[in-house]
Amino acid sequence: MDIRNIAIIAHVDHGKTTLVDQLLRQSGSFRENQAVAERAMDSNDIERERGITILAKATSVEWKGTRINIVDTPGHADFGGEVERILSMVDGVCLLVDAAEGPMPQTKFVTSKALALGLRPIVVLNKVDKPAAEPDNALNDVFDLFANLGANDEQLDFPHLYASGIGGWADETLDGDRKDMSALFDMVLKHVQPPKQIARQGEPFQMLATTLGSDNFLGRLLTGRVEAGRVKAGDTVKALSRDGDRIEQFRVSKVLAFRGLTQQPIDEAVAGDIVTLAGMAKATVADTIAALEVDTALPSQPIDPPTISVTFGINDSPLAGRDGSKVQSRVIRERLMKEAESNVAIKVEDTPGGDAFIVSGRGELQMGVLIENMRREGFELSISRPRVIFREEDGQRLEPVEEVIVDVDDDYTGVVIEKLTGDRKGEMVDMRPAGHGKTRIVAHVPSRGLIGYHGEFMTDTRGNGVLNRIFHGWTPYKGSIQGRRQGVLISMEDGVSVAYALWNLEERGKMFIGAQEQIYQGIIIGEHSRDNDLEVNPLKGKKLTNVRASGTDEAVRLTPPVRMSLEEAIAYINDDELVEVTPKNIRLRKRYLDPHERKRQARAEG
Q1: Residue 239: in which H helix or E strand, if any?
Q2: Which domains does the chain have, with CATH numbers?
Q3: What is the mean pLDDT of residues 49-77?
Q4: Annotated binding site: which residue ranges?
Q5: Which residues are documented as binding site for GTP?
Q6: Cα–Cα dist 139/58, whole Å
Q7: Residue 556 · residue 500 · CB < 8 Å
Q8: What is the per-residue pLDDT across 264-317, written as a single tens digit (0 to 9) for each?
Q9: What's the Cα-to-Cα distance from 22 to each of 151, 166, 183, 303, 560, rounded to whole Å?
């Protein structure tokens, strides 16, 4: 059977997973009466809850006698380590662009990776049936983006389609029949070349591992494209590291191929196909699985370096161990090392004390998803404020800069520009009308200045602004950047919060806790209305008297407390504060630094 290998790439929420749903349905991958969840490719709970793809997943469909292997890739740059590896095992990409929003930062990120590999994209202008859609403008923006990214003449002469993923149609013209996805299937067969590896089926077996998984029965699983030769269950092969060092020799226990939403055992895999192998004990991502006579490893795609780090520590608060079952530093370390093994964009280092670990990665969202997964598994952690990773080149200190694209109502452009370019040392790159009373602002802002800014941005724009960011490059250190301006309200007592006390404290600032919540000395219960920290007593009850008067015993009405999400809490805290994360609670608390630690942090900040 003929084979085509393609990846679907797009910005977050531009409709990749919904489009793959339609391709699976219309290719006959599901029975007519089969119950299939919406966004079937989003496999874990966090992906479904947030509506984003975090893990790259493969599937396959059959169309006119050709098997099309499709990889659904993450749209967010924080999970870009997945994208960079996945693109190395496909022969074409389908670039999905929202016809209303046009190319966005993550579109730029994944497209630059695809163009650098020499892939020729098929552009699909999705959601053209939206009232705000402007497909012609979006198409022009895509061409400009390709030109800016250094695309060659062949890549600039890209085919394009107009589509509606939710409507289940794609057409070559805007006023087409709008029946089904057959135009997209035919475009893939016409413009994506069959794998070059097919010609190497007679050579010794070689495969580059691109994703790592596990199964309760089969154990460790490695997925990749077969670069040369053939492999079947029972074959003895070896694993080579990137440097060509031998890691292990093992017997392949199963060869699995993607068929619809499931993986099925097959007799033999041949060069060009994307398959999963089982049976290894040590081999991991970027290793080469090869026949015993092969001694050279396949080249693997370099991964962009991490830009932020977060310290994961044990939960040492007075309430430790009440919610979670995994609280020891040894267990936390094992889990983090397991994560770093399968996710090449994450690095884990031990601290001198041994009870905390520095985890480096791409961004706050990536860290937030890792922490959320761990708390759901029963871990209790204390998390520090994210810190930017600096670089030294030729004796000069460099810091990461991000490209920020903001779509905001015209009325709020002034305050957004002032915050980005003034307080946060950013530089304006572009500003133009985006239609429908909105303005698009493009700025280059140091990563340090964006930590904790999103919540402030949503307040400044009354919740109507959209902010997207992506790593842009390195720039000389721009000096100190002011952090959070408000102080916090800190509990001076241990016990259970009292409604009357919180009611009296409301004039001091906004509360993060409600009545009848367990608190302890040092926990942050709210944000102070001024710039200094204030110790308060949230346990102070109403004094009882033997005199009753009208209105004395009226019920206390509290303003609902501010409940932060995990990412919001991590971005909100200062260097002397921690986020306490348990399966049931997210709390903020003070971390009183000893003088040596305070000096070390001051030196790091310059």
Answers
A1: strand 236-240
A2: 2-192 (3.40.50.300), 197-290 (2.40.30.10), 391-476 (3.30.70.240), 488-573 (2.40.50.250)
A3: 71
A4: 13-18, 126-129
A5: 13-18, 126-129
A6: 28
A7: yes
A8: 899 899 988 889 999 988 888 788 899 999 888 888 766 667 888 999 988 888
A9: 30, 8, 13, 32, 42
